[in-house]
Every structure is written in C-alpha cells, then in structure tokens.
Amino acid sequence: MLLKQNLSLYRILKLTWKVDLGMLLLCAVVCYIDINFFPKSQIPFHLPALLGTALAFFVAFNNNQAYDRWWEARIIWGGLVNDSRSWTRALLHYTNDRACARKMIFRHIGFLYALKASLRKVEDFSYRKYLSQEEIEIVDRFSNTPNAIMDLQAKDLQYLATEEPRIDGFRFLALNNLLTNFCDGMGKSERIKNTVFPTTYVYFTRLFIWILVTLITLTSSNAIGYAAIIIGWLIGFVFHATHINGMTIMNPFDLDPSCIPLNSIVRTIEINLLEALEKTDIPAPEKTIREGEYIL
Amino acid sequence: MLLKQNLSLYRILKLTWKVDLGMLLLCAVVCYIDINFFPKSQIPFHLPALLGTALAFFVAFNNNQAYDRWWEARIIWGGLVNDSRSWTRALLHYTNDRACARKMIFRHIGFLYALKASLRKVEDFSYRKYLSQEEIEIVDRFSNTPNAIMDLQAKDLQYLATEEPRIDGFRFLALNNLLTNFCDGMGKSERIKNTVFPTTYVYFTRLFIWILVTLITLTSSNAIGYAAIIIGWLIGFVFHATHINGMTIMNPFDLDPSCIPLNSIVRTIEINLLEALEKTDIPAPEKTIREGEYIL
Amino acid sequence: MLLKQNLSLYRILKLTWKVDLGMLLLCAVVCYIDINFFPKSQIPFHLPALLGTALAFFVAFNNNQAYDRWWEARIIWGGLVNDSRSWTRALLHYTNDRACARKMIFRHIGFLYALKASLRKVEDFSYRKYLSQEEIEIVDRFSNTPNAIMDLQAKDLQYLATEEPRIDGFRFLALNNLLTNFCDGMGKSERIKNTVFPTTYVYFTRLFIWILVTLITLTSSNAIGYAAIIIGWLIGFVFHATHINGMTIMNPFDLDPSCIPLNSIVRTIEINLLEALEKTDIPAPEKTIREGEYIL
Amino acid sequence: MLLKQNLSLYRILKLTWKVDLGMLLLCAVVCYIDINFFPKSQIPFHLPALLGTALAFFVAFNNNQAYDRWWEARIIWGGLVNDSRSWTRALLHYTNDRACARKMIFRHIGFLYALKASLRKVEDFSYRKYLSQEEIEIVDRFSNTPNAIMDLQAKDLQYLATEEPRIDGFRFLALNNLLTNFCDGMGKSERIKNTVFPTTYVYFTRLFIWILVTLITLTSSNAIGYAAIIIGWLIGFVFHATHINGMTIMNPFDLDPSCIPLNSIVRTIEINLLEALEKTDIPAPEKTIREGEYIL
Amino acid sequence: MLLKQNLSLYRILKLTWKVDLGMLLLCAVVCYIDINFFPKSQIPFHLPALLGTALAFFVAFNNNQAYDRWWEARIIWGGLVNDSRSWTRALLHYTNDRACARKMIFRHIGFLYALKASLRKVEDFSYRKYLSQEEIEIVDRFSNTPNAIMDLQAKDLQYLATEEPRIDGFRFLALNNLLTNFCDGMGKSERIKNTVFPTTYVYFTRLFIWILVTLITLTSSNAIGYAAIIIGWLIGFVFHATHINGMTIMNPFDLDPSCIPLNSIVRTIEINLLEALEKTDIPAPEKTIREGEYIL
C-alpha cells in the first residue's frame, strides 16, 4: 500500500519509461513521413476525438474494474481481521477449556500465514511456527494448506462441543459461522487471485492508445511541425499512465507497493491475538519500505 | 478463461473478420458514390461526433452489463467452491456416520458435474460416476438432474438427523443452510444462463455503428479522398471490436475461451474433496488449451 | 422476454413510427423557415454538442435505472424459483405428515399464480385450481390475495410444528425463513410495480431530444440544404430509439415482449413441483410467441 | 410520488421560474456588453465545451446520488411493508395469546405513524390512536417516540416468551429479528433524513452553470447577435432543470410531490393489518392530489 | 458535516487559494512566452479537449470513490446507532439482572467514545467516564482500547448466560450477534481510516490539471491575448475545485467540517441510552459550529 501522495520521479519513470521511449520513436517516425511524403493531406480533427471517446470508455472500464477488485480484496481482508477478533473473543470467553482455546487461536494465526503465502505464491513456512509437529505432518498431506488447517479447527470445534465441560449448540453455531466466514474469505481471495481480467480489454486498450498517438501526430504535424512529437507523446503519456495505473492494482495480492499490504494486516492480527492471550514476546508491526513510501 | 494478455492475431481475426470485410466494402461504396456524384456537398463534422456520444453510451452499457453477468457468474461458482469445502468439512467432522458422509460428499461431486452439463447444455453423464445405480434410476425420473440430486441429499440429511448416532439441530441447520446455498447457486446460474440480454440494445448498437461508419466516410472523403475508406474502417473496427468483446462474455456459461472455466473449477473441487476423503486415485487438474492460451 | 437478436422491421416501426413522423415533420418545417427566412444566420456548431452532452446523461441515466429495475425484478423471481424448490424439498423430506406437505406445496403454486395475476393487474383465477373450496372462501375476504394465501401457509406451518408427529424448532425455523422470503419477494415485486420512475426525468429527456433535433436541423440546413431533414431525423431517431428502448423495460411486470416472462417462470416452477410430487398430468412449458420471437 | 408522465406547464414553471428570469437577465447584460464594448474579441469555442465536460460530471454525480438516496428510501419502506406483514402473520399464527397479539399489531401501526411524523418533522399525533392511555404516558417520556414504542414491543415479546402458554425460543427469535429489522428501517430512514448531501457539490454545480451560461453567450453573440440571449438561456435551462430535478428527490422524506409517499404506504400497511385482524371499520386508501397528479 | 448550502467566500478561498495563485502565475508566464516568442505557432484546439476527456475520467473516478468511502462510513455509523438501540432494548427487556444490564449499557457508551478517539487519532479519555476503575486498568493493558472493551462485554455476556437467573441460548445468540456487529463496525471504520486511496490517482489528477491549464492558455493566447490568463485560470479552477472537493471527504473520519460528525452521532446515542436507563443528568446535543455552518 502506497503511503505518500507525492510520487517520486523514480516511480513514475519506473512505471512508464518503456512506453515513453516507444511513443517518442513512433511519433518521430510518423512525423517525419507525414511532413516529407504527404505534406498536403490533412486528416480531419474529429477522428482522434471520436477514437478518444471509445478509448475513454476502455480506460475508465479497466480502471473501475481494477479498483473494484482491489477494494473487494481489501474488504475481504478487513473481514478476516474482524472475524479473527470475534473468533478469539468467543474462544476465550465462551469456552472453559482454555488449553484448547489457546491452541485454536494459535492455529488461526497459522491459517492466516498459510493463506498469505498461498495468495502470494511464495514458499513461506511461517505458519509452522503456530502448529504442533503432529499438525504440520497432517497438513502437509494436502495440496491446499490453509484449507487443511481449517479441517483441524473443525475437528477441535467438534471436540469442544462434545467433551465435558462442553459448549452448547448456540456457541457451537457462533464459532462454526466464523469458521465458514474464514472459508469464504479464503475462497474469495482465491477467486480474485485466480481470475484473469478479460485479456481482450487490456489488449485492445493498448492497441487503441497506439492508434490514437499515431492519429494525433498526423493531425498535428501540419500545423506545428516536429513539435507534434511532443504533443503526440504527451496525450499518449496521459492515457498510458492512466491505463498502467489501473493495471498495478488489478491483481491486489501481488507483491507490489500499490497492492493489499498482507504482511502488515497479518502482523496486526497476530499482535492483537497474542495480546489477548497475554503473551509477552509480541512481534513489532511491519516496517514501511523505501523511506516510508509504502508497506507490503 | 483466457490466460495470456497478448492476443494472437488468429483470435482477433476470428472475432472480427466478417465485420471487417463488410465495413471495407461499405466504406468503398460510400466513398465512390460521394466522390463521384456529390463532390461538393459536405456533411458537418459535428454529426458523427454527436452520434459517437450516443454510441459510446450503448457500447459502454452493453459492456458493463456483460461484465457484470460474467463476474456474477464467477462469484456464484466461487461461492460453490467455498460451500463445497464447508459441506465436506462439516460432514467429515460433525457427524459420526462416516459411510453416509462419504456418500453425501461423493454425491455432491456428482451434483456439480450435473449442474455443469445442464448449464452448458451438453450431453455429459460424468455425474453418474459419483452416484449409485439406484440413485441414477431415481434421478433419471426428473427433468432437472441437479435438483433431483439435491433431493437425495435432503433425504440423507434427514436420515442423519433422526437415526442414532444422530446429529443435533444445530448441525442439521448448518448443513441445511449449505444445501440451500447450493440450490441458490444453481438457480442463480440458471437465471444468468436463461435470461437473454435485452436484444434491442445489441441490435441498435450494431445498427448505429454501421450508420457511424457511413457518416465518417462521408465527412472524410472530401478531405482525404479514398483514404477515407481506411479511416471509416478504423473507427468502425474500434467500436465493433469493443462491442464484440463484450458480447463474448455476455453468456458466461458458454463453451468459449473467454467464459467461466467450469471444467477447471469443478475439477479443482473434485480434487479437494477426494483429498479430504483420503482417496488415492485423484484426477489431474484441467489442462490449458492452445499453447496455454486458455482453459475451459 | 425477447429471444431473437435480430429485431424484425415490424417491431422497430411499432416502437418508433409516431416519433419518426413527428420528427420528419418538425425538421421539414424548421428547414423551410431557416432556408427561406434566415438564410444568413448560423447557429454555432458547439451548441448542439453541448446539449448532446446533457442529453447523453439523461438517456444513460434513464436506461441504467430501467435496466436495474428489470434485472432486480428478474433476480427477485429467480429467488422465488430457488426458494420454491427449497420449500418443496424441505416439506417432502423434513416432515412426516405427507398429506399436509402436499397441501402446502399445491398451495404454494396457487400463491405464485395469484402473485402473477396481482402484478400484471389482470383478472386471472388460475390460483384457485390449487386451493380447496374452503380456502378460496377465506382468501376472498382479503384485498391482497397472495398475502392471504401466505397466512394459510403460516397456519399450517404452526400445525406441523405443534401436532404429532411434529417438526422440531430448527425445521420450523428453516420453513419460516422461506415463508419470509416469499413475503419479501412479493413485497419487492410490488415495490417495483407500484413505484413510478420520477416522471420529470422522462419528460425532460423527451423535451431535450426535440430541442436537439431542432438545433441540428438549424445548424445543418445552411450547409446541406433540405438534406438536413434526413440528418435531423437520423440523430433524433438514435436518441429516441435509445430512450424508448429503456422505457420498455422500466416496468418489468407489464405484459410486453421485453418484460419478465412471468408465465414461463411460474410454469417452470409448477412443472418442477408437480414432478417432485410425482404427479403424472404435468402441463407443458409455456410456448414462445410470434415465430419464437419472445415468451411472456 | 408523481403519477403522471406529462408534467403540467405549471410544475415546470414552479420549479424553474426564478433561475429562468435570472439567466435571461444575465444573458442580456453579457450580450449587450460584448456587442457594444468588445465587438472583435472572440472567446474560442472549445472553452464552453471543456467546461461542459466538468459540469456534466457534476450534474450526473448529483443526480445519481440523489436517485440512490430516493431509491434506498423506497427500499427501506418497502422492507417495512414486508416485515409488517410478517410481523402480523407471525403474531396471529404462532402465538396463542390473541389479546396480546392484537395489542402488538395495533401498536405496530402506531409505530409507523410515529416514524412517519418524526421523519417529516411534523406535529402529528395519529399514532396515539393505536396506543392505550398508559402506553402514551410512557412513550411521552422519551425524545424519540418510535424508539420508545419499540421498547414496549420488546417488553411484550418477553412477556409472550415467559408467560404460559408461552412461545418457544425459535418463535421468539423470529419475532425479535423482525423487531431488529424495524429498528434498522427506522435508523436507516433517519440516516437519509439527517445526512446533508455534501453542500460543496450543490454549490459548485450552480456556480459552474452560471459561468457556462456566461461563456456561451459570449461565444455566440458575435455570430448571431442578440439571439445569443435565447441560446444562452436554453443551454442554461437544460442544465438547471436537470440539476433542480435531482435536488427535488435528494431528501426523499420531504413533503414534496416527487418524494416517497409515506402517507400512502402507511395507509396501505394499516389496511392490510386491520383486515388481518378482521376489523370492519377500515380506512380508505390515500387519495391522489391535484387531479391524480401525485400522492403523498 | 456541512449544514448550509451556501458556502461562504471564506471557505472557498480557504480551500483553493494556493492553487489559484499558482495557476495565475503559471498562466501569466505561459502567456508571456507564447505571445512574445512563438507568436505564430498555434496548438490545435482538439488537444486540450482530448486531455479534458482523460481528466474528466480521473476527476469523476476520484470523486466517486471518495463519496463511496464517505457514504459507507456514514452507513457504518448509522448501523452502530441502530445496533446500540437494539443492544439496550435487549439488555433491558430480555434479562432479569438489571445491574449487569446497566453496566453493559454504560460500557457500550464507553466503547463508542473509545472508538471515536481511536478513529480520530486524538488523546481523548472520555470513555473512562463509563467504565469502573477496575475495568480501566484491564483495558489499559491492550493497544486497541475499543477491542479490549468488547472483551469485557463478552465476559459479562457469558456471565449472564451461565449464572441464575440466566438468559437462554436464543437471547445469548441475539446479544452475541450484536456484539459481532459492533466488532464489524469497528473493523470497517478502521479499514476506511487506514487504507490510503491509491496515491497515483491523486497525483496524476493534479499533474494533468496543470498540463491542461498550460495547453488552454497556449491555445487561447493567440486569439484573445492576455485575457487567456483569466480563461486558463477559470478552467483550471473548475477542475481543481472539483478535485479538492472530493479529497475533503476521502478520509471521512478526519476532523474536517465535511466529514462524518462523530461527536454528534456518539452524543445522540449517549442521550438515547441514558434516557432508556431513566437517568436525569443527560448531556445536551452537540452544538453546531461557526454560525450553524457545520457540526463535528
């Protein structure tokens, strides 16, 4: 998650330098050909305007859907924060078997670490810290680690509900609902992670921007000569920057400064839960990166 | 679901070659008539612009609704994934009758295969693999196969809740809620499948694009001669491509590379559920098609 | 619900012939006056463009809200389909009093027929086929027929829950939730039916289109003479067709080819429910109308 | 709620006569100054167009939010209708204490009248008709009348659930959920009533329309002389009318013909509930106002 | 929350004086250079128009998301109002242990004060007024004060449900659901508070407005000389004002006149709850600020 409103020149160039070079080259070539070989033909001004209308739709559409994916991802993980707190509160106060409650709260932290690693597709075994050796062995038999951890939770929940001093049906229901919520949060995150945004939209957007840049250079070169290179690049920069902007948040679980700060969120839950368990060796919040510019 | 961002030239031509030919022909005819028979008349430039405004609304509207249908379909099947996991978890851990639980989990895989076949309107009897001979006979009496399978689930759920060692009301409620969710997921999928997008929108969009192409060729031919054919086609291509784009995801349960990858989703659930049942002969994930371009 | 993507010329003319004639007349008059009495004055081109911007907002706004009403109506009736299946499944499998269950399922079909008649404001007593003589007499005392039928359902649900062999609280809760859903579906349908879309939007849209047609004819007549009549009509046709389009789905429970096919949906539920009751005299699905063009 | 699609000239003038006069005056002054003092300067045409783009956003934004508030208000009261019917159905059929049920249904009608009066900020004591003298005294001690009535309902619900013949926990739960829904409906209505739409949007919209009118008159006066007064007013009328339109439904609980017809909705519920109680002195539905033009 | 529709000149200047000065300076410099050094070059008019299209998307996008955040924040706190009333109603009428009920209602007011202070990031210990000394000590051990208060509520809820005369499972469930809602409301508020709106959108919007102002001055200076300074500033003012407008409600829990009036909402709940507890020393509603212009 980006934290500073003023982007460094570094980030802007990092995002756009490739298309910037490409556009300047294209505009120069188009300008040269138009001025030297077709000095009299003049493409009417309303054509780039019409194309701009279609393009504005594409760029707005992509950005809206990207933002919706990003914000939905944020809402899902916000929900996981809330339900993690409710899970801890219910286990600590509505059950008498404190040992089992502690085990289930620890294991829930492990679930979050495993889910984070699975969404980011990195090899990260931090979740093992919160599981017993026996549990790790069971979990390793399954291809979907966080789902396997939830099975363990369900087993212990059934244990709490059948052994003396046992919790009654209403408490069982409340805890099972939270378990279902965790399952839904996991599945929704996977849906956003695994569903590719229709690639045709992205492809045509890029294609149409390049056509627009060409048309603008053509319609401007007669009036202002080689200055049309700058103008073509400028308009192209505006559209490309807007488009690239949206693309950076399209896959909100990537390891990008603009994406959902899973490290920071999981750490916050971890701290809250360990505090509730009255532990003393509580880790520090996640650090910001590159001079406080963003967190991951 | 398309997986690659760079569309092959093959797919673009496949999508648009018919309208491309049609537009080039139309532009050529219009250009020829305008240049030879009405060399002096000039239609004002602001008319195509005004028409473009109306058209932009139509194209944006169609695309937005198409995307909403596509994304809702994806959410519905994401929900089926989550609830399938919860169904398995609950049956394995909250009941003692393991044989009945296995039967109900197997049958659920059958339900998903039957629903997939029904949505794609193909003759596919894969679901029978997960039903007993007796069940297949019962199910075949009904016109709606997946609904008939759910009736069997309800019957066994009632059995679990009344026979010793029986599940209590709270567990019955949790499982019945999941059953209702499956029913809702099925009904919502059928709604999207069976509801035709208002055909007038599609028809008028196409009509207006052809009118726009004609007007653009007319307003450009005086200025740039036969090059107006290229210009008319170019603008028309942009609008047609955008429109056709949206149409490919309008019916998200069709067997199209852009649509919801039901094969892949059902297979993923199948693998998860068979793993949970500790089966060993687990099928492989669905393969990608045409050099990793898409999955179905 | 329209089924064919290619509109017959018949339907387009049926929708627009009145405004088409009106516009052609208006354009002719305006053109005649402008050419003969104000041959030199020229209204700037950017005025119709500015008006077009405002108009595009109006037309888009109306169409979006119309589509939302239409799609919400479709979702409501999709929900009634799902809940009708769940209602039948629960009554048949979770109760032992099969006679009462059959009565309540029959009565539910009656409820749907009564709701359909009430939404379409037609005199249709089909619902009586599924009620006993005694029930018909009770229901006739109330002004709101479907609501009265639901009262009978609640009475029998209470009977099921108190008489031996009775259903327990959890099953009572599940069935009562479905009853509440039916009540909500009915109320939501009535809300869409009875809430008039703010009339000012519709009125001003029409007014502004007529103003736009006038302005376009005025700004074109100097350049292209009496051909401005065609141009004025063409742009007006695009806006009027778009607007009329939206209006046809604004009241989705009307008896219009574009509206929600209540006949077909109710018949589908009827067939599903009678099949579940193992009846043999099951009615055929609703027929399509006018050469497969639409269903009602 | 307006019922007729054709607005009378009376209503249009009533809505806009002030700004109409103001705009005509402004245009005349601007026109006079421009023609007499700056006969040669010419502001480029693209400036009003650019301003129009920004303005279109503002007007669309305000109208969209206004409509959302209006439609949300309608949904809330539609929900109150549905839950009132469920409340009555549950009390009459799921309880044995008919006297208490009647009292609670009567009191619910009182709740709706009190809520209506509170939302419209009028002194209306109709609610007292449905409360006993004792209850009126209790309610009068609180500043929020409808909330106080709900406290009485909760008290009687607890009575029903503890005294013999008492309702069981499941019925208690169902009725308590409805009570919570009433509380939510009340709170949501208050939220819409009490939250002022960000005033900056309304203010800047008006400011920008006046600037646009000025610019249009300036850019048109050179070409068409004093006819620019009409043109300036016409464009201004379109934007002002659109803006004022939205504002009339921004506060949907006001006593305006365009707003939510609380009188009519409350009366409909009253009739339904009294019918269910088999009362004979049932009031007539609310009348339409000004020749069937609208209801309140 | 702003209460008056007419903004004082004071507020407009306060919001925009910095960019106003900056724009006037920029326009003057650009105008001077263009008129004196490039008197003949003329940038085509359609370039600012195209840029305006892209800019309109950015400004609309930012404003829409800002308004959505603001309105969601308002809905969350409206939900807290509703649930606070339900919490009080349930505790007072569904439990017999009046002392414990009072304690839990008092503590809930403390929770709201603690949540408000935490969202506004101010040092405000008002919440201590509603907690006992012992509770304050426990709460101070945790970094998240409102969450710690909820743990105390859960503890007392468990007490109510296990000690004689105890509440049954259904009442426990209803109260626990409200507790979960409070937890969700808190978490959702924190999500909006802590999630920075993607900074790239804000940054590029500002950048593109400055480019647009430059282009407009360049394209106007040839036609109208130094008057282009005013025109450039005017268009820039419209876009900047719109953008700044949106930014003021982007973080709706800030201490700004446009933001959610937490003081006023918390005070309203406090009054309602103390009235329900029949207290006599009830505080007055929050005062409006700066001559009734806004409340906090």
UniProtKB/TrEMBL annotation, chains A, B, C, D, E:
The keyword Membrane applies. It is a multi-pass membrane protein. GO terms for molecular function: chloride channel activity. Keywords: Cell membrane, Ion transport, Membrane, Transmembrane, Transmembrane helix, Transport. Pfam families: Bestrophin_2. It is found in: Cell membrane. The chain crosses the membrane at residues 21-39, 45-61, 196-217, 223-241. One of its GO terms (cellular component) is plasma membrane. The keyword Membrane applies. Belongs to the anion channel-forming bestrophin (TC 1.A.46) family. This is Bestrophin.
